[in-house]
Amino acid sequence: MAIVNLHNVTYTYPLTKTPALQNINMQVDEGEFVAVIGPNGAGKSTLCYTLAGFVPHFFKGELTGSVEVAGQESSKSNLHEWVLNVGLAFQNPFNQISGAKYTVVEEIAFGLENTGVPRDEMKQRVTDAMKLTGISDLGDRSPYSLSGGQQQRVALTSILVMQPKVLVLDEPTSQMDPIGTREVFGVIRTMAEKGMTVVLVEHKVEWIANFADRVIALHEGQILLDGTPGDVLTSDLLAEKGFGISRYTSVARKAKESKLWKKDKLPVTLDEAVEGFDLTPHPSPRGRGK
Amino acid sequence: MNSLSIYVARESGLHTLNPITKFVLTLCVLFCGFTLPGIWTSYLILTFVIVPLAMWGKVTKRMIQLVIKISWPFILSVFIIQTLFWGQGTALFEIGPLAPKIEGGVFAFHSSGRILFIMADFILFSLTTRPDTLMISLKQGGLPSGLAYIIVTTLQLVPQFVLKANTILDAQRSRGLETQGNIIIRARALLPLVLPLVIGSLLEVEERAIAIEARAFNSKRVETSLLDIPDTQNQRYARIGLVLFTILLIAGRYIWLS
Amino acid sequence: MLENIKKEFSTRTLVLIPIAIAINIAIGQLVYVLKLPIYLDSIGTVLVGALVGPWAGAVTGGLTNLLWGVVPPPLQNAFLPPFFYVAAVIGLMAGYFGKRGAFEKESPRWLSVIIGALFFFTLTFFITAFLNLKTDETGYTTYPTPGELFSSYLVVFIVAILAGAAIGYFLLQNGGYAGLAGLATGVVAAIISAPTAAVVFGGVTGGGTDLLVAAFRASGGNIWASVLAQGSVSDPFDKMLSFMVVLFILRALPTRFKAR
């Protein structure tokens, strides 16, 4: 069952001539994990905003085509109801702190307060959400005293606690250090495993290859490719346009030219590369092993 | 100490009072202090109203520390300017061209008293009340939530901002910006500080607006609150009483004068 | 009219206002600490007025002063809350002039030259007038006539006019309308703030402007006159400067930003 359905969507921001999105046709089934890749300016953020309802309700501008997410249609809804079904988190963790709350617990409850959830239910949901994302010990801290990775996890928790049907994430790890990145990816993976529909814009292709069900490659506002990670990420088209390629794929591609890569399909992940290059250690013929 | 607010949590009677009660109390003390005549009024209010309240809230020492720290530049300035530049009056003594006047000193004493009691009044309030609890109570009483949002966010954002400004200041200094010296140098230091600070912050506005929209900030539903701010009937009566008392005092003072 | 007011307060505006207030306080505090004889605590207010409108500007200004009294030390400044109405009016006027295009239309250079020259002329007039107040034995204060001033200070006046013209030409450039708007706002601010300054604090705030008050007191002015005089010197210049800074900021912003 498609929970996201974009049909012939074209969108132009106000005061600009070139559309940011052109003829986008995209379906996502419930529980799917879709990754979106593309160079800067390809329209990835605009796509996220469209899924989350901010295009067109927040940005105005011209939108043609139909946008259906979680049973709502863009032209018939307004933003404040749309956001209850679609959660959005983005790059900069600092900008996602509301500023209106003095502790992490209250910050997370902010969305629930705005939607009138009764106090007891609120407390339970906040506690559960914090356990899910692993930040239960941060409850009494000020959101401004946290590290970038912690702040981003608080932002994610604040969105997850609202129980959206679709989670849209726009490069959530771009401003994180390696620890923060690991923490955030951990949360995303947990949500995906629980069956949440996730649309993730990311540059870290190797991680995507391991966890995404599908990859959509966006280029100049249009969908270039849409398929499994194995297909999309090893496609020659990507190599041509120059983005979305993992180290293992490029190495193997070069190796294929020199006939050192024997398989048909190029690898995307480390494991595939190890397997394909036959790099698993064998016991040495002169037998040092047991 | 958390630099975001000067609130200190204490087990005290004053702390448990409803924030609106404390706010009303703060304002009533302020207005009473301003209307009552005499140069000693401010000092009397300070000693017999504010300090006892501070003791009840167990924050006396902290309050006095903060009040002195903030007020001393003003007090110094006012004494020097008003005594030395008073114009016609009785001189205390004369050293060359300097002739401090008693009238100036008296005026400065009066002004200092005012500033001390005002500062103490508000600092006591800030020490014993968390700003967001006040906003929640006011919202329940009908304050528009947009206004409440602006106020609390400002209180948290301003110290953050100043930190950012200091970072820019250091960065510019390391690139050779001069900030010490005569007035021209100091004035020229301003623009390379102001411009990046302001423009950088303005570009954040859109993302921050999106972030709170994503948390249903503009939801049309009735809001609830995670925190429970208790209020009692006695406190409601006390608040009405305080306001009436203040109004009577102000009215009485003006009637008595004319 | 109520609809117009509500329209100004979109989510973007609600997010902008705390940032603008923070700008006011951060820059204002910096200036206070540097002991410069100006305030520069209204840049955020003027910015909101210019970008959004008069009512948002008024709220920004009013709240800045009120909240400045309750922010945590060392930023806390208790002298400013009583002047909240002045700051609100500044925001109101900035918004009004903004709607009339003060920050968008380019003014001819000669207008800027005239404004600069006029301002410095008036400034010099004020200062020399106060420096020559005579109080005779019966306590009567006599003001010097313009004729007396010009004859004694002719060179000073000429230098002031030329300096003003140069500043208008080089600094204001084609921002003459913004400069004029700032000047007008500053004059209004000086007038409406003088009573509070004189009554509440005896004209002293602990900042660099106190030096000017002292100077005016020393030359014989009473508290009211000195405060008004200090305001007349600091405020118009300060507001003109603030409006100019906002003009430059607006010009530096990407166009996409101003589509609101």
Characterize the structure shown.
The complex is a heterotrimer of chains A (290), B (258) and C (260). With 290 residues, chain A is an alpha/beta fold. Chain A has a 6-stranded mixed β-sheet with strand order 6-7-8-3-9-10, with helices on both faces. Chain A contains 12 helices and 10 strands. The model of chain A has no long low-confidence stretch (mean pLDDT 88). Chain A has helices spanning 44-51, 54-57, 79-82, 104-114, 119-133, 148-160, 178-193, 205-211, 229-233, 236-241, 247-257, 270-276, and strands at 2-12, 21-29, 33-37, 62-69, 72-73, 86-90, 166-170, 197-201, 214-219, 222-227. Chain A folds into 3 domains: 1-85 and 167-179 and 197-234, P-loop containing nucleotide triphosphate hydrolases (Rossmann fold, 3-Layer(aba) Sandwich); 92-163, no CATH class; 246-280, no CATH class. Helix content of chain A is 37%, strand content 21%. The longest helix of chain A has 16 residues, at 178-193. Chain B has 2 domains: 13-137 and 230-257, no CATH class; 144-213, no CATH class. Chain B is flat. In chain B, 71% of the residues lie in helices and 0% in strands. With 260 residues, chain C is mainly α. Chain C has one domain: Arp2/3 complex 21 kDa subunit ARPC3 (Orthogonal Bundle), CATH 1.10.1760. Chain C has 11 helices and 2 strands, in the order ααααααββααααα. Chain C has a two-stranded antiparallel sheet. In chain C, helix 2 crosses helix 4, helix 5 (84-99) packs antiparallel against helix 8 and helix 8 (176-201) packs antiparallel against helix 10 (223-252). The longest helix of chain C is centred in the last third of the chain and has 30 residues, at 223-252. The relative contact order of chain C is 0.14. The model of chain C has no long low-confidence stretch (mean pLDDT 76). Chains in contact: A-B, A-C, B-C. The interface between B and C is large, with 68 and 56 residues.
